[in-house]
Design a protein that fits this description.
globular; alpha/beta; 5 strands; Rossmann fold; five-stranded parallel beta sheet
């Protein structure tokens, strides 16, 4: 089963000084799941990595994507409609978080790798009672 990654975990994996780095790295290494990033989180992750870690770190992210080490999940029209509904129901979340939820629902994934416990814990997905938030 794929492991869906949110922006915070992608960033934490790249930044050895991040508070979540060790937990994220250990979890990903032990889980052995295929890592998947929603296409909607990639601009946010790339921006944060470039701004905080530099252009070389951003190139490493892109190289990892190109090599297939991190899969990219497309965003559909149905996902966009679900995002609109989620943003109405949960006005404190943003579009990127809503897109992660919509994709997780479409793929029927129960687990989301995220550092954002506050937003994802409040959301009640359509397909399970609650998301399992890791690491």
């Amino acid at each position: 089963m794929p492991l869906l990654l949110d922006t915070g975990v992608i960033y934490a994996l790249a930044d050895r000084d991040d508070a979540w780095h060790q937990r994220a790295t250990t979890y990903v290494d032990e889980a052995r799941d295929f890592l998947v990033a929603p296409v909607t989180v990639l601009p946010e992750a790339a921006y944060l990595i470039r701004e905080r870690l530099g252009a070389a770190a951003e190139r490493m992210l892109v190289a990892s994507l190109a090599a297939g080490e991190l899969g990219v999940e497309a965003f559909t029209a149905a996902d966009l409609r679900r995002c609109a509904a989620l943003l109405e129901t949960y006005p404190v979340i943003g579009f990127v978080d809503a897109s992660v939820v919509a994709i997780a629902e479409r793929l029927r994934l129960r687990t989301i790798a995220t550092t954002d416990r506050r937003h994802f814990a409040m959301i009640r997905p359509r397909h399970v009672r609650a998301f399992e938030l890791v690491p």
